[in-house]
Amino acid sequence: DPEDRVFNFAAGPATLPANVLKKAQAELYNWRGSGMSVMEMSHRGKEFLSIIQKAEADLRSLLNIPEDYAVLFLQGGGTTQFAMIPLNLCKPDDPVDYVVTGSWGDKAFKEAQKFCKPKVIWSGKSEKYTKISPYESLEQSPDAKYLHICANETIHGVEFKDYPTPKNGILVADMSSNFCSKPVDVSKFGLIYAGAQKNVGPSGVTIVIIKKDLIGNAQEITPVMLDYKIQAENNSLYNTPPCFGIYMCGLVFEDLLAQGGLTEVQKKNKKKAELIYKAIDESNGFYRCPVEKSVRSLMNVPFTLEKSDLEAEFIKEAAKEKMVQLKGHRSVGGMRASIYNAMPLAGVEKLVAFMKDFQARHA
Ligand code: PLP
User: Fold this and answer.
1) Distance of alpha carbon 95 from its chain centroid, rounded?
2) ipTM over 0.95
3) What is the DSSP code string of 58-99?
4) Predicted model pTM
5) pLDDT digits (tens, 9 = 90+) for 265-306
6) Which residues form a coiled coil (predicted)?
7) Tell me, what DSSP letter sits at residue 328?
């Protein structure tokens, strides 16, 4: 039964809105009278051009993206951006700064070491990535070309609630796991990037929002596919793009606009996250979330059981009740409930009821 779906708490690829999947299903075989599936279309034909242009226009209105920013639909995931950013924004000897609030920020920093001179100016590692530094105490490198942050650490559940203003250079943010989950003032950033597969589409599409005056300075060794200038001049169509993925992102953007835009989406996300954190905090220590309250993620809720030997049982029983993928990342253990945009409130309510019931049976 195709209606018999589970509540998927995976960190990614994540659940997609049911209405979006149904719309794609209805259009799968013959897209709007074109006689073809989107997967079969020329990426240079008028049909696909209308799809990618609408997707960009809708994203621009969702995030209020200023005119002097380019929007790129790329491939290679967030991971490719870890290299593409230093390759394009600095020369091999340039200093750049990284604030490392979890594993993803750390990976971004390590990749940048191949292409410039990055420095970790703050790391949450010694406190197991449960905090974010107060911005006033961040000491940036003189002449740093950019300050890189991971806006939401998917594994550790640590999320920036507002953003530091770099004294030197521009702010660059990995928004892979909280992209389009709330309004963002794009003008504060030089570059924002995100893999689509958590909040806005299937994997295979990576979205980059970059201030146009930063484009055109790639290092000489930069492969064509990794040069923002080539991608921007060709409107993301230098080579064959991930057409179907871009189409799916477009359907999600339409859906987010129909929900009332990102202010409304944020309200829903807050409500869902609060329900789970409340259940954890009111469990008398049966459940625990290690993350400092002020920076707890609205997207990824990591938690453990005081009686850690019960964790496998918790995950197994939840799966039996059609709540799947609740196992924490292998590097931190415990559980993790990822509750991106498309997770319905009903899924979170069901999880919270299960948590209470599980506690009553095992406390
Ligand atoms: N950045 C963050 C915050 C992530 O959560 C992930 C993947 O989960 C990545 C980067 C890597 O993304 P990708 O798998 O698209 O390369």
Assistant:
1) 26
2) yes
3) HHHHHHT--TTEEEEEESSHHHHHHHHHHHHH--TT-EEEEE
4) 0.98
5) 999 999 999 999 999 999 999 999 999 999 999 999 999 999
6) none
7) P
